[in-house]
Amino acid sequence: MKTFTVPTREEVSPANQAIFDTLKKKLGVVPNLFATMAYSNNGLANYLTLANGPSSLTAKEKEVVNLATSQANNCEYCLAAHTAIGKLNGFTNEQILEIRSGAVSFNDKYNALAALAKSFVENFGKPNASILNNFFEVGYTNENLVDTIILIGDKTITNYLYGATKVPVDFPAAPALVGEVA
Fold first, then answer.
1. Which of 49, 80, 83, 107 has its CA 20 to 30 A from that of 91?
2. What kind and span of H or E run contains 115?
């Protein structure tokens, strides 16, 4: 299998260098997976436009979708990154593990959202009807459904990129779920 290295600022296009500079100012670092997107002259900018677009979902709801999707796709990189981001958004370690499992005991809406994201991924875009119905029964709307699907697509992009490149994970490792097969 081809080995991917993370490109440095000097190895990417001038447009991507400017994005690296912005990311470094905003985050203090350019995450390895973002840097890897800079192999494409347009990929990083296009992805960041998608990822930073407005949504009807709250920051916490977005992390529920990110964590459940990344778990269903078994993405070590995104699980590590979104475990850290989930903590920044106020989730505890125990809550993050529940969200990743797709069965959330502490919040009915998060439970419906995590289950839906997991069902979408596991069923190749065709969620279980009862899970979809529950999503609406707990108060989510058609707008929320569309935004959830867009977010699943966003996260699937990074899950797939990591799956293909296996660049070094530059976040603390996410703990394994109990019963998870390594």
1. 49
2. helix 108-122
